[in-house]
Structures are given as C-alpha cells and as structure tokens.
Amino acid sequence: MARPRRCRKICTEPAYDSFKPEGISVGEEITMTVDEYEVIRLVDLEKYTHEQCAERMGISRTTVTEIYESARYKLADSVVNGKKLHISGGDYQLCDGKNVFCCNRLCKRSEESVRKIIIQRKVGAQTALKEAGIRLYGGVKGNADKAIEAYLKGNLDYNPEVHCTTHEHGHSCGEHHCGEEKHGCSGNGENQ
Q: Does the predicted TM-score (pTM) go above 0.85?
C-alpha cells in the first residue's frame, strides 16, 4: 500500500497560470501542479536549497527533489517543444500565516514578536528583520493593498537605500521603544 501524500504548504497560488508560445494555435498542453510551481519558485527564483524548500513546504527533501525534477521536465518540454503550460491542481494547502515556516512576502508577522526581537536583543529594526530573514522594502508610500499588488507583480516602487543612520544623541539603534522618539532612520524622503 502506498504512503498517503502529504499536503504541501504553499505561500500563494501563481499570479499567472498559463503560458503559451506566440504564434501557435491550440496545440499540446502541459499541466504543472501548483506545488510543482512552488518548488520551482522557491528553488530557482528564491534560491532555496532543497532542504530549505522542504522545510518551508512541510515535506521531505526527497519529495522536493522528485517534484523539482518533474517540474523542470515540464518547463523544458513546454519551452523546447512549444507547448502551452498551464498551472493548476496538485496536493497543496495555502499558507495561513501561523506556521513558523510561512513565506516572508505574504504571511503576516506579529508586530509584537518583531518588537520583542528588537527590544530583547537591543538591535535596530533593520538588523532584527534581516536576522529573521525578512527583506526590507523601505520608503513605500500609499495604500498597502496596492503596494502588495505592485510587489507581487514585481514593480514595487521602493528605496533600497533606506537605512538606519548613526544617532547623534549618545545611543545606538534599538534603544527606543516603538513610537517613543523619531530619529536617525533615513532614505524614505524624510527623517524619522
């Protein structure tokens, strides 16, 4: 009797689920599952190792390798042979934001837990975020939903130069509690 398949955790369904070569009418179609897409996204785009990918998705490393090989074959067959690629189906569960291994870009992080990291370790916010594996997109202004949409489309307008500067009044970054005093963080067009 075969082992039951474990549900694979994914961060989000693909924004684009169908790709077709230009100038080709309806022809052969290949279906890549959403969990295969997620493995390709994590390994090839996010540069995760198979072990890190397995941890994120809640499956074994060997399962990741099997999924990866299947997905890469489908990508190659689509590109080389001009077949339409459709992404759908599979054994997966969308991330609910509660698992410690949830994705950095979509799942909510508790403000309180980030605040505790900053206060307990006496480090700056940027350092704490970096240590937690969270990438900072500084200087983003406007509606949060529109910013997330722009991020997902790959065209978020942000300032990579946002950084915590030296502090003039005899302390280091991380010694203030949230909202107590604005100081020293620059790069988003205003001194905070």
A: no
Residue 90 domain flag? yes
The candidate with the shortest Cα–Cα distance to 77, out of 43, 28, 38, is: 28
CATH number (domain holding residue 13): 1.10.10
Do 58 and 17 lie in one domain? The reply is yes
Residue 162 CA to residue 184 CA, distance in Å, equals: 11
CB 71 within 8 A of CB 79: no
Compute the chain's Rg from CA coordinates: 21
The number of domains in the chain is 2
For 11, 22, 32, 86, 100, the CA distances from 19, given in Å and listed in that order, are: 21, 9, 11, 6, 33
- Residues 166-175 have a mean pLDDT of 46
Residue 187's SS3 state is: coil
CB atoms within 10 A of CB 133: 7
Q: Indicate whether 12 and 87 sit together in one domain.
A: yes
Confidence of residue 32 (pLDDT cuts 50, 70, 90): very high
Which residue segment(s) compose the domain that 74 sits in?
A: 8-94
**Structure tokens given for 100:** 């410690």
Between 145 and 102, whose confidence is greater? Answer: 145
Does residue 104 register a pLDDT over 50? no
How far apart are the two ends of the chain, measured CA to CA in Å? 62
Beta strands in the chain (DSSP E): 8-10, 18-19, 29-32, 84-87, 92-94, 163-164, 185-186
